[in-house]
Specification:
This protein is an alpha/beta fold. The protein contains 9 helices and 6 strands, in the order ααββααβαααββααβ. Helix 1 packs antiparallel against helix 2.
Length: about 220
Amino acid sequence: MWQGILERVKERRRFAWIILAQNAKISSFNGETLELSFTNEAARDSYRSTGIDELLNHVINDDLKLEWKVKVSVALDPKLGQQILGSPSKTRRPGEWPALSVNSGAVQPATGQNKEPQPVPIAWPPVRKPPPPEDFQRIQELWPKVLDEIGKRRRTFWYLLSHDCKPVGAAGKKIFLGFDNEQSRLAYLSSGADKLLEDVATEILRFACKIEPVTLSE
């Protein structure tokens, strides 16, 4: 079912499909809550900041009519994650296997009935931080590539974006897109080009950017 969900996400937003397909895996499911584990914090933050979480909930709840909740987390060290996630609780029921020693490759029986297992320090993998927002000069340099990718996907959007507007400034992750007139700005918003442009710009510029359309004063 997860592959079917990904295909529906892909039909709506290709960038969302890329984030989920390459960076998220199902870590648990109890019939009501689906837990996704991301490879790093940057991928998880991108999932939340670009609206992928809302899109995924819409596909699951509205399209497929599944009453699931989605929970996200960041994966543990791949060498230790399975052992840590599957480690038994402090109180064991009769007949259960004794606690595992994380530092040893073999199963070691718990020694001493009154001794609690000591916590083992976990060597967390380095987290790749998302690249900082580019300065405006670099955005201008990469903008032709953004327009080329738009042209490959929707020719009509390329015509609108290459003739009636241009980036005029940036603040943090926000890019200001200046239009020659209000009519062109409204056409951009009503056509759906805004969502495609944000997806493509995020892929090319490599940060979760937000496009703010403005009308240039004469």
